[in-house]
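Chapter summary example.
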Amino acid sequence: MKQRKKLFNQYYLSRMYDKITDNAIYVGMEQGPGIREMTWHCFVLFNMNKFKRANNILRNIKLSKCHFLPMNFTQLLYKYGNHIESDVKEKLINYIKEHRDFIMSDDIHISTYNDSMSFL
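The structure predicted for these 120 residues follows.
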């Protein structure tokens, strides 16, 4: 499984690495990804030891309300916390704290979080 993940992530980065800049700006032919997709992009970057790029994107990403982000940020902090720079870590934690009431409401059930991402 680790080899399959590595191959997938290598292929993904060969096509997408330069599509999202350090400033969290999408450079592509179509409509750019949203904050959730940019966060997914950072999972791959962290997994492939591209820590500086991942931190820069997360540092510069313009956050808005998204019911996936608190869980995604929690996963990033849990899995890659040692590689997340302190200012970025603070940004992610503050976002989680600001939105925890929203994600802990009866409207959102734990089973609705997507756990099938190959890069996790």
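To summarize the output: The first helix runs from residue 2 to 16.
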